[in-house]
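Assemble and predict.
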Amino acid sequence: MSTKPRPTLVALIVSAITLSACVPVSPWQRGILAKPSMATAPTPMQDTLSEHTHSSREAESASSSASGGGCGCY
Amino acid sequence: MAVIKSNPALQALTLAALALPGLILPAAGAAEDDEVNFQYSHYEEGKRNLYNVLNNKNPIEVESVVGKARVSLSDRIKFAFNYIQDTWSGATPITTAPLAANGNRAIKANTANNETIITGASPYINNARMFLTQKFVPILIYDKTVPGKKLFRTAQPVHVLSMASPETRKQGDFTLGYEWDEAAIKIGGGLSVEHDYESRFGNLSGRLDFNQKRTTLDMGLSYTNSDNSAILDHDAETYITKKAFAQQIEKSGTMQILHGNRQDWATSLGLTQVLNKSALVQTSVAYTRSTGYLENPYKVMTIVFADPATLGTDPDHPNSIVGDVRAFLEQRPNERNQLTVGSRFIQHIAFADAALHLDYRFFHDDWGINAHTFEADWVQAVGPSWTITPKIRYYSQDAADFYHPYLISKQTYAKALADPGTLPANFSSDQRLSAFGALSGGVTINKKLSKAVSIEAGFEYYTHAGALKMGGGGEGSYSDFDYYLANAALNVNLAALNTGGSQSGHSHAHHGKHHGSHGPAGVMFGHMLDQANDVMLGYRYMYSRQAGDTLHGIQAVTDQTIRNNGCLQAFTKHCRVTPTYMDMSMHMLDIMYAPTDWLNLMLMPQFMDMDMDLRLLEGVSYNAFQDHLHGGHRTGGVGDTGMYALFKLFDTGNHHVHATLGLSAPTGDVDIKLRAMHGDDKGLLHYGMQLGSGTWDFKPSLTYTGMLDDWSWGAQFSATNRLESKNDSGYALGDMFQGTAWGNYHLTNWLSASVRGIYTVQGKIDGRFNRVAGVVDNVLVNNVNPGSKANFSSGPMDFGGNYGGRYWDLGLGLNFTVPSGDLKGNSLGVEWLQPIEDDVNGYQLEREGALSATWSVMF
């Protein structure tokens, strides 16, 4: 598996960059981060539906976690 | 920490803020309140371009419903359950062929006036005479009737379209999670079942917060095991070369079933980092390994065998090679390793009170595909209750190494069969593996109706084009298509129902009084909301099955009797087939509102699906051109929509009487047709498989309920009267009357058990299917319905006299009501109806039973 070392490396680099870029944010400063619009998935029902549709029409497997989805053979 | 001011008000606010789950966790672990969601969606593709032939086939359409429930079993233990159901139908590419292979052949039909018209296109995946130049370029030969150029050298490919009969997929899955203050773990699993595909999956995921919750690490591991058992298209199967999969094909009766198992392991790692008080970033890496049968069993590869020795053998085309066009089941590698690296940046935009989400994902696999996905969402709050989210997405992928629209092999077909090594090891013309780009955009609109209830609507338009591929070099425009996806959803936050709000106080009070008064789960309109402005939301599922003997009246009959007497309206006066089983499921949403204390209004949308299989009657010999014996028929989609008004007539506390007046609107389809077989149209599908009544129906009922101590009881008379003598397809279902009475005993304050008796009488179907024009033996005839001269292969289910009857049932039920806690007021009910006696009109399958399950919550 020649691809195996790459994810770890990429993750390390990305986390190194992001961690160094961040400023301390105290819990009481997190009002904005707690807004529903700032959630990593602000429209989860919509995301599941469009990911399921995209994955039945594109080569990329949308979800990294097993969530079913059937054959999509049509 | 140095900047904290010692301000008591601030400290109090901080504490209050910490108490809100959304603040304790960063956005990555966003608050997961107890919630129930329902969603309906409709997907529809545009028609594909077939160039020289009229494409009259309906493109792929998918109707889906989703139900989700997430509840806290304790402060730290969360349980979630999801149910998904899709039904799809329509025309989809079975292969791609050179235009010169004439794969989509015009269906020409002779009308009564002896004119020849083109009614559509029919797929031909073999062609023994496709000509090629000496440089192996296909030669398109125009129809003699087209003036001008007769020959044209072109490598132009075209999709060959084939119709798929409606199919339904059902999926249930769950997750169970445990949460610590700074970590969480979840396990989950589920099952997805289609007629030809079954998939079982399990997953394990974990979350770890550190760095004062500014950083969150997510990990996931999942496993999926899927079994294909694809029934090869009975029309196309004899024209497909299946040699490579001979070991995997099972012959079962008249069917050929291709079996294959695949396994997918996926791992993922994600890191979410709060950058500052208004921005965060998420990066993730995922690796998926798939092994086993990774093919799409319904896609074939077109290979043109162009043996140079055939040059000059056709006297009409002495300078051409004679190509032999063949179709092979596609062959993919048995292993696929996939890597995805993604990043998401979320920035709050203060001046607009909006959030900008930017996503990028890179995908790579060892089939040679690299893909890029870019997405931008703008989440805009509008006023206190609206959120509008426009989205735009761009996707681009390379082709798989073994993707080809079609192949040209410079040898004979026989030689290639004898030595498969002369063909590539893998090949596929599935356009999902081609090089293309896709641009899509859409909008989601969410409106909060109250603290607890919100509704959502979404729309997406998607366009797939070879020309949109990043850097060019995509597939030709023949493969372009587009689709739209529209959906509507209802979300109920169960936690918010019970936390404050002006109405919740009194609802709890009357829940105490009326606990368990819903009556058995199978009873509709069994109770009223008794205070003005109360709202109830409910979900109702009903399943029924018919199987076993065929009855005439109350007697089981022999095949001989069915054959001779079951299809008397038919052209041949004989039945050829009879159902082996018929399953029906209904999902209903009950939305009930009390404008005053004596009147309730109710809206009840329905989603249905049906599944029926047939068998040949004894003494009839199978005819592939007549008998639809290839794995049964399925239909599904939106059913009829009920609108009701409930009037309180009498209420002394212990005794209560109410009347219901209702209308059912014909929103369910009644014109679903059978798929054409061997080029012959077959007309409308059995009455019982259509999704609605097709008529406006009047539905009155009168309900009495009583209670004393631990006992409650009730009785109801209800009727359905068709307000029109026939629907758009020419018939009307029979009127119905039902009487029922029940007793219910409260075993505890949260559990009661019920016993019920039901008598139902329903009339036969009036009228019959309208004539539907179609092609039979290349002649356009005006009636291809079952039982007609053109389509006499039919069974009892195709005749209106074989519907309705008189039925006795016994119902046994349980009702649960959550007495306290966050989920207080939620009710669940189940009831099994056991048939006691069937006295059917005509010839019908006996009933095996019916299950009703309900959930409701009042607020």
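Chain A touches chain B through 58 residues (CB under 8 Å).
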